[in-house]
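Page 47, continued from p. 46.
Same chain as before, 220 aa.
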Amino acid sequence: MEIDLSRPILARNEGLARKNRERLAAAGVFAVDILASPGAGKTTTILATIERLRDRYRIAVIEGDIASRVDAEKVASHGIPAVQINTGGACHLEADMVGRALDALPLDGLDLVIIENVGNLVCPTEFDLGQDARVVILSVPEGHDKPLKYPAIFALADAVVLNKYDTLPVFDFDEGEFRESVARLNGAAPIFPVSATKGDGVADWVEWLAGRIEAARTTT
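Result:
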């Protein structure tokens, strides 16, 4: 006999994620969940995204981390509302955590909520947060084989950002193999080569996100 203890946890999470999604939709807010390994450049990419979109959309950020307020403070220093979630050891965010963070945000005055999940390519995969889109960031130094090692998260992604693209000549990163691996797992997900620190490629990624935001508005 086998007892799957994950089922009641995931079922509860799915119910809370549905409530988050309904709440965000009622307020006209688009939510994007950003997933990546530690050091991939999540916060840097988020800040570059904010700079491109802040004149078009009212933005807030939910920061997930095991400990510290470093990333939330970085975002807040740019004049963007930020809520920090410290998971106390948990390797992913869950829908109830995000729901409590939404309580602290002025949803009626927002258009976009960016959720920076805990740095991990495994744990966050099965936990729906109520987001409208999931985006995976991979940095060139991590290697082109990551979609093969962590297929589930790439299979669920709505888009993939290949960050630190300017370092491509320095590392043994086979871009063709990377793209083929992602395409086999998820042929619908676009890949955006980006250097978040320099701003290269950010415009294409941002326009894709803006397109998703506008498309969501036409269906509500």
